[in-house]
Each structure stands twice: as structure tokens, then as C-alpha cells.
Amino acid sequence: MKEELSLIFLHKINDPELGMLTITSVKVTPDAKNAKIYISIFDKVGRDVKIAKLNSIKGYIKGQLSTKMSHLRKMPDIDFYLDDTLDYVEKMENLFKKIHENDNKQND
């Protein structure tokens, strides 16, 4: 599903307002009724608006997805969520950098 979604974004959704985004993971519930699609967005400005925009066109995306994945009996409902893992990693790296700088100052 992740690969098919990537192709849909690449070829079917032509919206420059969405900017650079990456589908980081797709989590489908065990009953296959719902799918959570996690998106990483490069530009930090307006991320919530971009996720809301994706959720506003999820019917179209689901339709495109069901065409590509016709082997499924029923297409799960989809919802988009912001994946902020990279922000967390950046925050932790900055924290470790500060700790390292403080250690170096104390050793001088």
C-alpha cells in the first residue's frame, strides 16, 4: 500500500502547496477497516494545514488506491497523520550536542 500511495502522490496529485512529503509508514488495523498513513513533511511551516489538506482529499486518494489494489475485497478507510520522528531525532541530537559542549567546557 505504501508503494501504491507513493505512486499516486507522484502521478495523480499535482498540488504544489503540499511541497515535499514522504510516506513513512502505513499501519492497517487487524480487521483491515482502517489505515493510518504517516507523512513526513520537509517544510516545517504549515504542516498541520498540509495534513488537513490530505485528509480533505482522502476520498479521491482512496478511490485511486482501490483501483490500483483491486485484489483487496474492501479498501480500508484512510487517515493521514504527521510523522514527527525526524523532529524528535533533531531535538535529541541538539540536546546531546549541548551536553557534549558543556562537558568540553567543564574539562577545559
What does this structure look like?
- The chain has a single domain, classed as GMP Synthetase, Chain A, domain 3, CATH 3.30.300.20.
- Strand 1 (21-28) and strand 2 form a beta hairpin.
- The radius of gyration is 19 Å and the shape is elongated.
- The model has no long low-confidence stretch (mean pLDDT 90).
- The termini are far apart.
- It has helices at residues 2-11, 47-56, 58-68, 85-107, and strands spanning 21-28, 34-41, 77-82.
- The protein has 4 helices and 3 strands, in the order H-E-E-H-H-E-H.
- Strands 1-2-3 form a 3-stranded mixed β-sheet.
- With 108 residues, it is of the alpha+beta class.
TL;DR of this structure?
The chain is of the alpha+beta class and 108 residues long. The chain has a single domain (2-107), classed as GMP Synthetase, Chain A, domain 3 (2-Layer Sandwich).
- The CATH architecture can be named as 2-Layer Sandwich
| Number of strand elements | 3
Number of domains: 1
Subunit organisation of the chains = single chain
Q: Compute the average pLDDT.
A: 90
